[in-house]
Input
Amino acid sequence: MRPGSTGTRRRRIVGLVVLVALSLLTLDGAAMAAGDATGGADRGRSARFATFNASLNRAAEGELVADLSTPDDPQAQAVAEVIQRVRPDVLLINEFDFDAQGLAARLFQRNYLSVGHHGATPISYPFRFVAPSNTGIPSGFDLDNNGAVGGPNDAFGFGAYPGQFGMAVFSRHPILRSRVRTFQRFLWKDMPGALLPDDPATPAPADWYSPAELAVFRLSSKSHWDLPVLVGGTVVHTLVSHPTPPVFDGPEDRNGTRNHDEIRLWADYVLPSRSGYLYDDQGRRGGLKPGARFVIMGDQNADPFDGDSVAGAAQQLLDNPRVNTSVTPTSPGGPEQAALQGGANLIHRGDPAFDTADFVDVPGPGNLRVDYVLPSRNLRILDAGVFWPASTDPLFRLVGVFPFPTSDHRLVWVDVRAHRHR
Ligand SMILES: [Ca+2]
Ligand SMILES: [Ca+2]
Ligand SMILES: [Ca+2]
Output
């Protein structure tokens, strides 16, 4: 979901600098020197992959960097402790405001992850990746058809300034930077059979966006990144994204249809028979090669059974022939909170043990499964979980109930190992 939608609307800055370059993968000498011999499944060919919509977004540009410049931001402390408790090897953080220098990511490592919280062991991620996000970049068009151009809803992705609600990846394994692919600028109209929304007030089909708008409309609301990570000599393509929430629109369902097709991008990317139309920001076409190993992860903003997404949106991944769904991450806190909170949770079809987000229950969608870590079938799942402790657990203080100490989402993790033989 989208927090802060009523937040301060600062003057937007044309994100030329933001657009120009992928920020560099950074090596933090201090963090490396600190060392870290502990960890979940980070030995040999095994690794713990995790996704966490940590809600490290701020209403104004520069505010996250300011907050992380000192070690005393309570939310960032709690987010860091969750990470230190779970100890992922490869971690995607959704809703982590982007800055072109990667300063926020560096400061989060130095001032929060490298500092132990409440007795937890510090954790070091020598490899990090951030890149521009479509959020908050002005499109120059009236995309929400409210009669005016400008504001978060007319940006390439919803956001008050360039990079708000961006993403960051933290890794203890090398990210093969020269082989990274990004799909920030892939145009929605170039997806065959795209669910382009229709203006119900006109007889023409699929005409919510004009031809001029479709000529620039980027499918990805943030970005889609393929980050090849080297795990014990094996390349694992880490496929990360954060599709737009399927709500905050009208009967045309422009966000729901976009959410569906943003999810579809990865569903097609992993199938050589369907990926031929895709092109990345570097001008290369196609998707993964047959036999490639991957982990799709992120807040997909779609529950397979409940909530407001287009029917079948999440199933594009869950029913994908290349995706390994042999283990579904669960928590003790999800069922407990669904029962305690009631409302929409009482009529849900999905198993609350699979929930990953604590949304409004009355009136609202209730708690949903929207955050996923989905390995390829040629990776073995050793273990998995959702960090949502029961209320009797001392660590429940890290998730809490609204207003949340960390986020309305929970961290999801999966331990994988590459098969010796495919
Ligand atoms: Ca508008
Ligand atoms: Ca129409
Ligand atoms: Ca709730």
Q: What stands out?
A: The pocket of calcium ion (ligand 2) is lined by residues 198-199, 202, 204-205, 207 (CB under 6 Å). The longest helix spans residues 254-269.
